[in-house]
Amino acid sequence: MSQQRDFAASLRWWRQRKGHSQLELAGRADISQRHLSFLELGRAAPSRDMVIRLAAALDVPLRQQNALLVAAGFAPVWRQTDLAAPELAQIRYALDFILAQQEPFPAVVVDRHWNLLLANAGAGQLVEFLVGPLAPGTAVNLADALVAPGVLRPYLTNWTEVAGYFIRSVEADAAADGTTATADLLKRLLAYDGVEAALAAPASPASGPVLPMLFRKGDVSLQLFTTIATLGTPQDVTLQELRIESFFPMDDQTAQIFRNWSKANAAKAAQS
Fold first, then answer.
1. What is the pLDDT averaged over residues 142-156?
2. pLDDT by residue (tens digit) across 217-235?
3. DSSP bridge pairs for 25
4. For the chain, is the Cβ count within 10 Å smaller at the N or the C terminus?
C-alpha cells in the first residue's frame, strides 16, 4: 500500500506538471479515465507495463521512468552506463567523430547538468586563450564557468544577454525533469552575483538571427554561436542526457583566428 501511494503521488505530480487532465492522459495512454483515477488515488496497483506506458505518454525522461517503476515496486528497466564502458564504444566513436569534424572550431560533450565529458582541441584552445591551460583531469562545469563571476564572464562582453538566456534554459530543464539535482543546479546559478539583474534586464532588440557569444581579451575579439545536438532514440539514461554543443564563427576574423591556433598547435606538436 505504501508503494501504491508513492506511485500514485508521483503519477499525479507528473500529470499536473505536464499540464494534462486525467481525460487527456487516459486518451494518450489508451486506458479508461476511471482506471487512471484509481491509479492516482492508490486504489489500483499498476503493472510494470502500465507504468512504462503512462511514463511514455507523459514523456517522462528515462531516469525518472526508473524512479516511477521503483515507486510502484518494480526494478528499473533503463540502465545507466558509464560513457567509457566497452558496451558504449560505438557511441564514443561517434562522439569523437563529431568532435573531430568540428575542428578547428570548439565542440564539447556535456551531461544533463553541464559537466564536461569530452572536448575537442578547438575547445581547449578557446579555454586556454581565455583563462589559461587546465590541469589534466580538472572537473569542469560549463554552467558554472559561464555564470560565475571569475571564469568566462570577464571576457564575455554580452554576458547579461547570454547568461539570461542560459538561465532560462536551465529553468526549463528543471521544470521538465523534476529532479533535485537540476533544481540544485538552478539554485546555485541563481545565487551568483549579478544573475538576478541579468534576468531582470529588458530584452534588447534582436540584431541577428541568433544570440552570439561575444568574447574579447586584449585586442582579440571572437564572435561565436552554438548548436546543441542530442542522440536519437536513446535507450540508456546516460545517452539520453548527453548534449553535444558545437561552436561556429559568426565572422571570417573569428574563423581565421581558430585556424591560426590550430596551425600553430600542429606545428608545435610536429617539433616535439
1. 96
2. 999 999 999 999 999 999 9
3. none
4. C
The x, y and z cell numbers of residue 117, run together, are: 565529458
Of 9, 111, 121, 22, which is closest to residue 68 (Cα–Cα)? Answer: 9
Query: Is residue 54 a contact partner of residue 29, using CB atoms and an 8 Å limit?
Result: yes
CA distance 95 to 113: 18
- Environment class of residue 49 by beta-carbon count within 10 Å: exposed (0-12), middle (13-18) or buried (19+)? exposed
Euclidean distance between CA atoms 12 and 41, whole angstroms: 9
Q: What is the pLDDT of residue 176?
A: 84
Where residue 178 falls among pLDDT bands split at 50, 70, 90? confident
Q: Which residue has the cell 558554472?
A: 144
